[in-house]
Task: structure prediction
Amino acid sequence: MHTLGIDLASDAANTAYCVVQWGVGSVELRALGVGTDDDHLLELHGQADVTGIDCPFGWPTAFLAFLCAVSRPTGEPLPVWSERQRDDLRFRSTDLRAHRVTGRWPLSVSSDLIAVAALRCQGLLTRMGVTDRSGDGRVYEVYPAAALTQWGLPSRGYKTGKGMPRRQELVRELQEKARWLRVGEEHHRTLVTSDHALDAMIASLNARAAKLGLTLNPEPNEHRDAVREGWIAIPEKGSLERLIGG
Result:
């Protein structure tokens, strides 16, 4: 099995990819890079068994309904929203589940800059043939911070240049937990140098967890929204050690 992890940014320069090859008792990081366009990502996707993308796959249903409503002005004043109503415009069902499970809020795709990356993501999903955004067996939405939390690893403080010492420690801890993962020296330097590359590797491992059924699925009352809004494939607790099996 080959898994592809993509840390998708709004621009190619900050977009990272990671390909992991899974064999019997042997797992190797085969390709890792930062700075790539959609055509290259689609080429890698075509060679992979499963792809995990770190980017929202859709927008909150309530937010889309709100946009449709305000696009046809009636002259009536807008309601004064409660905090709960405002959160319904900002967060998807999967974001609410992620917060309940991990204690972390994913970035809001309707009110944060990540919306720009999500626009790019729509083009990729269309070209990949994705129609079910809840996880169709080939393409999954992932959230590296949630995966790290579920695997008992540090999930804060490793971003940007200032986070390099934390990234170095995180890579060390990850390799201690996953001794079966082989990472070459050049790839190791890239993981420490770039948080985008590190997130792409986590996305690739997360994709393996999703393919093995080791992630949290939508509840029946969440499934309809998940198909339209996207669904984060949050790994089960302790599932990192189980990725080598299956």
